[in-house]
Specification:
alpha+beta; nine-stranded mixed β-sheet; autocatalytic cleavage; hydrolase; Isoaspartyl peptidase; hydrolase activity, acting on carbon-nitrogen (but not peptide) bonds, in linear amides
Amino acid sequence: MHKTAIAIHGGAGTITQANLSPEQDKAYRAALKKAVEAGHQVLERGGSALDAVELAVVHLEDSPLFNAGRGSVFTKEGKHEMDASIMCGKTLEAGALAGVRSIKNPVKLARAIMEHSDHVMLSGYGAEEFALSYGLEFAPEAYFFDRYRYEQWSEVRDSDIFMLDHTAQRDEKFGTVGAVAVDQEGNVASATSTGGMTNKRYNRIGDTPIIGSGTYANNHTCAISCTGHGEFFIRAVVAYDVSCLMEYKGYTLQKACEEVVLKKLVKFGGEGGLIAVTPSAEVALVFNSEGMYRASKSAGEETLVAIYKE
């Protein structure tokens, strides 16, 4: 029986103690702890890594604190467009969706696409139609309304400015949630979900639903979930690049993550981070920004919850 481990993130960016009140700090930590421990309980009961990452991400999607699911930001039109993906390291099967508007838990739709369709990625109305056919839960616009998110959007909705998440500096705020895990069978999995950018236009899609950029899982190497400025993560093919460094160059997980996040991304201005786990339960939480909402738990060890640079 393999050692189990799970890690989650809730976004990265210019996150410092000066930016969060004590009450906000406490709320974020509690939400992260609840999500990671829920996922780890699945693993300890003998459940699959896929089930664990899906449940952990559902917890994060259900919280208005994070830019995914219920907490998704507003688009230029005052709507919500969500992206998500999930991948199985054992089979390399994956499911992804982009630009859906009414799905309560996009990660559940990603799982359904992976398991019940012949496709990897669906978008917009087609993805929503697929969700209806499999009985996935929809939610009204009021469910996604959050006063703080609305005020964020109100500041820029009459301009061409778009906003990322998690910072006082409006152009460096990366809101995404994700989870990676390894189960008792030694199988890894990853899942990622996001509401994208505040005031985004033209049905913009970031790295979250793109397999190999924002999400990747392979039992031969690792499982990865990314958070950051999606355009840079797409161009750098971040998640797959970490796996390639391990598979073809023999890098350790930590070294591969640092090579991509702290060197390759930084060279051309990419900011953000990632979480990763190997089949042997090695965990990495690497970011080049001021902070990253993150948590991890391995079998027999205490839960780690952190926000700022240590």
